[in-house]
Amino acid sequence: MGCYVYMLRCADGSYYVGSATGDDLKRRVREHQTGGYPGSYTAKRRPVRLVWSQHFDRIGDAISAERQIKGWSRAKKEALIRSDWDRIQSLAKRRAGKPQAPPPSS
Question: I need a labelling partner for 94 at 20 to 30 A (CA). Which of 1, 27, 30, 51 fits?
Fold first, then answer.
C-alpha cells in the first residue's frame, strides 16, 4: 500500500507539504483543489498545483520525510522540486541563511 509525500504550490505562492496513504495521490490532490477540508491550510489558497511527490513503501518513512521537508526553508523546498541535489546539500550546510563559520585553524 505505502504512502505518498507531496508538495503543493498554492495560489498565494506558498507551499503545502502533506502525505496520502494508499496509491491514490490524485484523489488527495483533488480534495485540496475542491476545498474538501474547510478550514485547512489550502482551503483559502486555491487553486493548488502538485509540484513534487514521492512514494514510500513504509508509512513510517513517509511520515519522517514529511516532517523533515516541512521544516525546510523555501529555497530548499524549491531545490527539491527541481531535483537539484547539489543545492539541497549546499543549503543543508547553512543556518539562518548565513554560511557556516569555517572550523578553527590548528
Answer: 51
- What is the CA angle 100-101-105, rounded to 5? 140
Query: Any idea what the CATH number is for the domain that residue 52 is in?
Result: 3.40.1440.10
pTM comes to 0.85
Containing domain of residue 77, as a range?
3-87
- In angstroms, rounded to a whole number, what is the distance separating the alpha carbons of residues 60 and 66? 10
| Sequence-separated (6 or more) residues with CB below 8 Å from residue 77 | 7, 15, 17, 69
Question: What integer pLDDT is reported at residue 15 of this predicted model?
Answer: 98
Q: Which amino acid is at 17?
A: V
In a domain, 43, yes or no: yes
Q: Are strands 15-21 and 3-9 parallel, antiparallel or unpaired?
A: antiparallel
Confirm whether 104 is domain-assigned.
Answer: no
Residue 11 lies in a domain: yes
Q: Is the previous residue joined to 47 through a cis bond, with omega within 30 degrees of 0?
A: yes
Beta bridge partners of 14: none
- Low-confidence residues of the chain: pLDDT under 50: none
